[in-house]
Amino acid sequence: MWGIVLSIVMAIIIGLIGDALAGHEMPGGIAGFMIAGFVGAWLGATILGDWGPVIGDFAVIPAILGTALFVFLLGLVSRLLRRAT
Known about the structure:
membrane, Transgly_assoc, GlsB/YeaQ/YmgE family stress response membrane protein, mainly alpha, transmembrane
């Protein structure tokens, strides 16, 4: 039970940090940060591997970098879609 709670809290924190690094506004508030944190953790682990400190089953450094990349790409796609309409 506490593992799930810790994973959700870490996903939100990683989402907040990744959003701050990417310099975009992540839509969806806390839920958006949580989703970005989970997707970014998966993306970071896939691209960079599992290294650095691990908290709540997240390799923190690759997760933050993956989240920043995800938020940056999401911002680019949203700008392209806004420009196309």
